[in-house]
Amino acid sequence: QVQLVESGGGLVQAGGSLRLSCAVSGRNLENFRTGWFRQSPGKQREFVAAVDASGSNRFHANSVKGRFTISRDNRKKTVYLQMNSLKPDDTAVYYCAADRGSYSGSYALRPESMDYWGKGTLVTVSS
């Protein structure tokens, strides 16, 4: 069993920054690809960013490319999402997810392909 716990969400003004963390327990993080997804009211859960098990291959959605960066520290069993230049449209609950599959870092992951999920952390960006 794998447990994921997100933290770091909060209220920030447009143009500001936040760093989300996802603490992973129950298994060695080296065995899992991981991703960040988000969901705002009335919308489907959408892909934000993903990174492979080694941390070498990463992919970001076009909507966040150049502003958000996913990373991971396998020794600390933590996945990060650095969010800069935040916009009101980034307001959502952000979820961390993990899966045992391989990953080339060249495409967006589908939410239905992920096996383990955290409960999410709310990010609110005010204008």
Task: Give an account of the 3D structure.
This protein is mainly beta and 127 residues long. The chain is 0% helix and 48% strand. It is built from no helices and eleven strands. The chain has strands at residues 3-7, 10-13, 18-25, 33-39, 46-51, 58-60, 68-73, 78-83, 92-99, 116-117, 121-126. Strand 4 and strand 5 (46-51) form a beta hairpin. The chain is globular. The model has no long low-confidence stretch (mean pLDDT 95).
What attributes characterize this protein structure?
7-stranded mixed β-sheet; globular; 127 residues; mainly beta; 4-stranded antiparallel β-sheet; 48% strand
Radius of gyration over all CA atoms, rounded: 13 Å
Provide the residue-averaged pLDDT: 95
Estimate the global geometry from the Cα principal axes. globular
Helix content: under 10%
Order of helices and strands: EEEEEEEEEEE
Q: What oligomeric arrangement do these chains adopt?
A: single chain
What share of the residues does DSSP label as strand, in percent? over 45%
Instruction: Give the termini distance in whole angstroms.
Output: 40 Å
